[in-house]
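Hi all, posting the design record for the shared folder.

TITLE: backbone redesign
STEP: 1 of 1
STRUCTURE INPUT:
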């Protein structure tokens, strides 16, 4: 069966051109796409099922470093508006790479249960630049979108198809710029034209959809979620200052399985005070591959007893976007902290 695909262009290097201030959006993306996908094109491998494509540009086109939760919502709104007239039609989102993993996680929560696959991609080099990865990534994302094997939101980049809530930008220059440090890729392209190797579990994105996301979720807005890194030598006074004024939620990037400098005078107390005042404190890890287990060491137990919760094996991007999503749904404090541990769209593994 042929499948039309709707493409949503949000900005990013893929459509940028040089300016005196550096790269800015400005390329003729519509013209480039028309050249890439002429109506009489011979069926490229994996694209036999691709029908026609439509394109919407979300104005203003942005460098994704300027993205906010409102930008995520603009994409969600466009996806839902398109899906209401064309249910089940796959969607490809073109996006800057810098915050693409945040957006893919955010979309996976807000679009859980949508029914149509959504595949996000971008490129390290602008379209038309020598050696650009734009063409390979767009064709790969289209291939994933019409494959019939993607459930939920996925990210295609550098030959890898990753679950939307599991991806992280791993390189600022390599054409394989994204990784999924904990979960295996959904698929791997050995070459642009060859067959793809799919893993057995292709439902990782969108596999578990709790009731909070079944009804139309409330829109993303900008909530005050702060990310704080632990470093050797951080003082209790600095930690307290970073928590003043109190944010709605804290993602605290701790060491290893979730350990903090608990001998540092006032540090655990500053975190405990924030929790008592109604801030959700979520402990993530600075390790790319981690499963946070608070209480494995005494240095993590102290904050667990204060009421902090672990981010399990979520990436920073997945945890941050999830805190924003749950705050938008009206959850705060301990209810928010508790909800962080339940998977919405395959972003977190059940406790081993
Ligand atoms: N700064 C660009 C962006 O995120 C980088 C890229 O697209 O690769 O929009």
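Okay, here is what came back for every position:
SEQUENCE:
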């Amino acid at each position: 069966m042929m499948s039309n695909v709707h493409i949503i262009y949000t900005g990013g290097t893929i459509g940028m051109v040089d300016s005196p201030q550096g790269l800015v959006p400005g390329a003729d993306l519509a013209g480039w796409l028309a050249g890439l996908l002429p109506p009489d094109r011979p069926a490229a491998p994996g694209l036999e099922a691709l029908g026609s494509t439509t394109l919407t540009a979300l104005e203003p086109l942005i460098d994704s470093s300027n993205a906010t939760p409102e930008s995520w919502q603009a994409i969600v709104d466009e996806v839902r508006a398109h899906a209401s007239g064309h249910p089940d039609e796959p969607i490809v989102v073109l996006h800057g790479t810098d915050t693409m993993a945040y957006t893919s996680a955010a979309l996976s929560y807000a679009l859980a249960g949508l029914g149509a696959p959504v595949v996000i991609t971008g490129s390290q080099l602008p379209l038309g630049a020598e050696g650009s990865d734009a063409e390979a990534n767009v064709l790969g994302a289209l291939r994933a979108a019409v494959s019939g094997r993607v459930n939920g939101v996925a990210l295609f980049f550098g030959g890898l198809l990753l679950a939307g809530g599991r991806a992280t930008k791993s390189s600022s220059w390599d054409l394989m710029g994204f990784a999924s440090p904990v979960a295996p890729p959904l698929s791997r392209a050995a070459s642009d034209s060859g067959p793809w190797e799919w893993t057995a579990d292709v439902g990782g994105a969108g596999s578990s959809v709790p009731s909070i996301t079944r009804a139309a979720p409330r829109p993303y807005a900008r909530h005050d979620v702060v990310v704080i890194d632990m470093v050797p030598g951080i003082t209790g006074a600095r930690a307290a200052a970073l928590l003043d004024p109190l944010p709605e939620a804290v993602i605290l990037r701790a060491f290893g399985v979730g350990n903090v400098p608990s001998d540092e005078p006032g540090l655990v107390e500053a975190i405990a005070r924030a929790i008592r005042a109604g801030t959700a404190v979520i402990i993530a890890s600075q390790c790319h591959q981690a499963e946070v287990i608070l209480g494995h060491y005494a240095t993590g137990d102290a904050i667990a007893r204060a009421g902090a919760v672990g981010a399990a094996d979520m990436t920073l991007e997945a945890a941050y976007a999830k805190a924003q999503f749950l705050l938008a749904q009206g959850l705060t404090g301990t209810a928010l902290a508790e909800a962080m541990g339940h998977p919405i769209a395959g972003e977190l593994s059940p406790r081993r």
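COMMENT: The pocket of aspartic acid is lined by residues 11-13, 63-65, 96-98, 122, 124 (CB under 6 Å).
Let me know if anyone wants the other runs.
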